[in-house]
Amino acid sequence: MTSPSEKYAAWAEEKRRENSELTAFTARYDFALDDFQLAGGRALEDGRSVLVAAPTGAGKTVVGEFAVHLALAQGRKVFYTAPIKALSNQKFGELADWLGAERVGLLTGDTSIRPTAEVVVMTTEVLRNMLYADSDLLDGLGFVVMDEVHYLADRLRGPVWEEVIIHLDRSVQLVALSATVSNAEEFGAWLQEVRGETSIIVSETRPVPLWQHVIVGEELLDLFVDADGEAVVSHGPGARSDRQVNPEIERITSFSLPVDERSGGQRGRGYRGRKGTRGRHRPRGAGRHGSPRGEQRGDRRGEHEGPRHHGPSSGRDGSRHEGGRHGGSRGGAGGRPMRRPEVVELLDDAALLPAIMFIFSRAGCEGAVQQCARARLRLTDDLERGEIRAVLDERLAEIGVEDEEVLGLHAFRRAVLDGYAAHHAGMLPLLKTVVEELFARGLLKVVFATETLALGINMPARSVVLEKLVKFNGVEHADLTPGEYTQLTGRAGRRGIDTEGHAVIVGGPRFDAPAAASLASRRTYPLRSAFRPTPNMAVNLLDRFDLSRARETLETSFAQFQADRSVVGLARRARELEDTVEDYRAAVTCERGDLLEYAGIQEAISAREKELSQARAAADRDRTRSVLGDLRRGEIIALPGGKRRGYAVVLDVDRHVLGGPQVHLLDTEGRRRSLRPGDVPSPPAVIDTLRLPRPEALGSGKVRKDTASALRQRLAGQDDDARREVRRRAGRTPSTAAQDPRLQELRAQLAEHPCAACPELESHLRWVGRWRKSRGELEGVQRRISGRTSSLARRFDRLTDLLLELGYLEHAGEDGEELVPTASGMRLRRLFSDRDLLIAECLEHGAWDGLEAAGLAAVVSAAVHETRRDDRAPELIADPAVGAALEASSRIAAELQSAEARHGIDPTLPPDPAIAAIVHRWARGAHLAAALEGNDLPPGDFVRHCRQVIDLLDQLTADERLGRTARAAIDGVRRGLVAQEIGRSAFSQGERGGWDV
Predict the structure, then answer these.
(1) Spatial separation of the C-alpha atoms in residues 100 and 993, rounded to whole Å
(2) Are 271 and 292 a contacting pair, CB within 8 Å?
(3) Rounded to whole angstroms, how far apart are CA atoms 75 and 414?
(4) pLDDT given at position 537
(5) Cβ(55)–Cβ(180) under 8 Å?
(6) What is the pLDDT of residues 979-996, one digit of tens each?
(7) Helices 976-993, 85-99: inter-axial angle, 10-degree rounding
(8) How many CB atoms lie within 10 A of CB 420?
């Protein structure tokens, strides 16, 4: 029985909640908040920080918005941070709509709107820079909301998140909003250590049911079914734990015949769409479909707009319905996968639109749009087309006529009017925004997108389609991880919009249903820190703290927290390996002699053979360097492989570059390539000559294509495989292994060794191999244990040694044991870039002095650019001062890399001038088409790159020697489409709210 005191306490708690700010906040919603949202709000009201981890679309931003409400109620400031500018702009608009224009500010790298407002939205980098500068804007700060905090795992930008979390004043309450991660408790435990009392709130329940499907051949099948073969929900309300993989998928994929020709077995459990579209979304011209599926079927789950799932059953006439099938035949599961327009038609018939189709390449997204256009696919009616046209006319009016062709606006308009579009990072941000707006309004039915769309941008979809379960991760093509699959499919079925969501996998001929089911079932998404000390971070820490405190700060990072925890498991593994090594060592015996001595001679032979092979490769490189230096313009060469293969004609030879000579080539497809000694394993072979147009004429794409055509004609009759031609004309350096005295001596010792005659030698050597392998593994584990203990502090020490050597730090204090930034270090302190130390060195040595504004913009372009592909040869810039500055920057980069190698620090990337010439033309006043002429750089990439150039130029305005030129360069770059993109979100918000921007 409840005591009177307990009843009173419960009553008092209820009254307190009735009068709380959380109750006042929830009144703005016409629905009840979820338990995890209420728990997050109560924790904040009690003065604690919170970590909220919940699935995409679950509504975790409600907790962040309550922090905004609470801060205003308490008369304190609140910062709302996001990892990218697009998310910052989006949140800025949402908060301004809610709170009013005068109370909300925006700070990104190139936009500043009301920075002293009570609520300021900003990128995380801006907040980090504020903390290091001890900005006055931090006064009165009570809350910081960090949206998408799982972004701290990002290799390039993730460390910024940890810097912010570590350096924020402990009085500031932190609201960390994360996607569902499998180690949320570990991350929360770290937050407890560095931020104080923190509530860890995890919700793994998807708010909208998720159904999983597979397209196999022509059929749309449910991936999961129950024991009776009925489709089941995989995640969210109604999810079943007794689900199994649909056996029909394996039955179909085991045949290579067309579907209609398969025999044996029942049709199995298929998929039926709702009445829905009745053929409205059809390609222009004659359709290929029969009547919409499922028209005579009822919805067994009740009245809503979601698609319907049915197993095989007989119709009213007793015939079996063919689940998930189009009329007609287009090849079975053993043939080609469905084409993209066919996939869209299938989804349309099944009432699964609107959909986002993830295609893991920009070219694939654009290709999908072109395929739909060729298929004359139309997904919109006349009323929708009218609304779309009105949006396009308004949003795209600012684009000049001269830029329409290079932006591909005609094709973009046509596709969008028909209800589909691409969305990827290579597009102009304005066009991406238009796609997002039209999709959110339900006017676009299908968006073909890269995985970058999965990050935060609010684009609700009924369905998400994964064309493949493999994507390129920057190094190799790798399988999607469960975390990536979760992130992508999290967009399917958004709360308050759809009653259910659908994830669709397009299966190929060898579709692995169990593997797909495992991927779709697991929700493992571990958060791994990417934190590492950088030169800029080091000088900022040492400007604020003494050396001991700076090292302690690094020791408090999430990276070190995880490393220290992992040592426990590694130590256990080391003990296990020690026992294994002892056991294998006892087994390494031979009655004939010393088995380990025999194995040691074998190792020596292998090492000597490797030395000779490396010497041979070095001789090949020397020959290659000599041959490349002797090449002449117009010579046709056969390439031996490596990074460059096939045939090409020499355009120019630059004999005075680092790592050179560098040969500029034109291949048989009309593409310009560069060739250096390290790109090929052996020298190319000269096989003919070709008369070339004047060098300046080759800037024209048509001239290059004509020249490539002439090259192909000249090569008629040559071997299709250029490598065979190289072997015939210019073979590799001969091997010296057969004549090497040391190698011959070792082989003789091996043959004369007593163990060589042992009949059990092969068995004995297997034990030696096991012993060596386990010993090597043990040594590796021991190195990892040693490396992880205080690993960041040791890395920091190596970095400070380098900065001392280069003059950015100096000894201070009575005993000289402290480190403080020098004047050069204070300049480095203000440089925020992946190449911060290289930029500081270029400034220190005056490499960029004396440049005009456009030239400085071009050199800064090289300092911030990182080529996505390795086959774009840099275009030469006519201004010799720019060439000299780029050459000096490359020389400084090589010297810096040597210094970094001496100190055991990862090398800084050298300048990348791949698109510097484009920026140079743009900064000199060329319009967009002229600036991009002769290049395949997407306009969206160009605009984004210009924003990066402006950001670094802005950092250089404080420099005494370059400040004036940097300001002029900013004016040259920030114009036209670039200026429109930078100011568009700010100006549009200002117009809407009548703000003073």
Answers:
(1) 8
(2) no
(3) 51
(4) 93
(5) yes
(6) 888 776 444 443 333 322
(7) 20
(8) 29
